[in-house]
Design brief:
It is built from 15 helices and 2 strands. By secondary structure, the chain is mainly α. Strands 1-2 form a two-stranded antiparallel sheet.
């Protein structure tokens, strides 16, 4: 066992978050969420001097508090509460494995199971309307917007992966420019094919727009630039998509993940193997990708119900 002075909950949380960032390479967004969750857990443990004094009942009570809410916090959804419990379980597991506490008291506390939600996808026609709406005026920013959305839909990239692309990630991944290197969660890289539409959109942007945008900045290898010549942010990319969706008159709410969902759904509709789609999306488990197969089954059922003479 380590000296008890290192068993103070706040110090253990600090060590655990550093472990996640440095040794595990956890994504910045996930790390920020865990930080918020564990800060709330420390409030729950107010008055506890040693992490080793925490009981399983106290961990379970924290889960109950997440779901019920209190005067300072609204009730959390099952998915948000599950994430918080995962953070807390990880903290206690880390402390036990590192010899800070004698046992992992959180091992028996199970996070709530979130309801299974089918990913939202839009039709191919709606995707085409969206892409067209992004570049109606032909300005440098419009060419950038079209290229960004083509890349999001043409590769299934997460928004953070798309705005994090460097110029060399596209040109250097394939002599013919037919693939792109995407850096996913935990810094994992994958090479994804890029179709002709996205390639042409990116080439137009690089030739006709990016040099003008880059001239306003101090120089950056990032592919997508803002009006000041700096790297395009996730928030700005989100806004670009929202504006294009509004111009296109799309009734459904559209987010960057909508294009990722649509990419996967349209691949499966076209006959792609779920394992291939798993690799393209960068999912660690095929079970995550299999959610999309439910979408296509629903679509097949709709077609059957409307087309088969004895479906009703």
């Amino acid at each position: 066992m380590r000296p008890s002075t290192l068993d103070e909950p706040r110090a253990v949380v600090t060590d655990y978050l550093a472990h996640l960032a440095v040794e595990r390479g956890v994504a910045a967004n996930t790390l920020a969420a865990y930080t918020r969750d564990l800060r709330r857990y420390l409030q729950h443990l107010s008055g506890v001097e040693r992490l080793g004094d925490v009981s399983e009942a106290q961990v379970a009570a924290f889960l109950a508090a997440l779901r019920e809410g209190d005067e300072d916090h609204p009730p959390l959804s099952a998915s948000s509460a599950a994430r918080a419990v995962v953070a807390v379980r990880g903290l206690h597991r880390f402390a036990a494995r590192d010899g800070i506490v004698p046992a992992d008291v959180a091992a028996g506390v199970r996070p709530p199971t979130p309801p299974r939600r089918l990913p939202k996808a839009i039709s191919v026609d709606d995707v085409e309307r969206l892409l067209y709406a992004a570049s109606v005026d032909g300005t440098p920013l419009a060419l950038r917007d079209r290229a960004l959305l083509e890349v999001l839909y043409g590769t299934g990239a997460r928004i953070s992966e798309a705005v994090g692309l460097d110029v060399d990630d596209l040109a250097g991944s394939d002599p013919d420019g037919g693939a792109v290197v995407l850096r996913g969660k935990g810094g994992k890289e994958r090479v994804v094919p890029v179709g002709s539409y996205a390639r042409r959109a990116v080439e137009d942007y690089q030739v006709r727009a990016r040099p003008a945008l880059a001239a306003a900045g101090r120089g950056t290898p990032r592919l997508f630039l803002n009006a000041r010549g700096g790297p395009l942010s996730r928030q700005s990319a989100w806004t670009i998509l929202q504006v294009a969706a509004e111009r296109a008159g799309l009734a459904a709410a559209v987010s960057p993940h909508t294009l990722r969902h649509s990419y996967a759904t349209h691949l499966l509709d076209g006959g792609a193997d779920v394992r291939v789609v798993q690799e393209l999306l960068g999912h660690a488990s095929v079970s995550t990708t299999q959610v999309y197969t439910l979408v296509t089954v629903d679509r097949l059922r709709e077609v059957y119900a409307t087309a088969h003479p004895r479906a009703r």
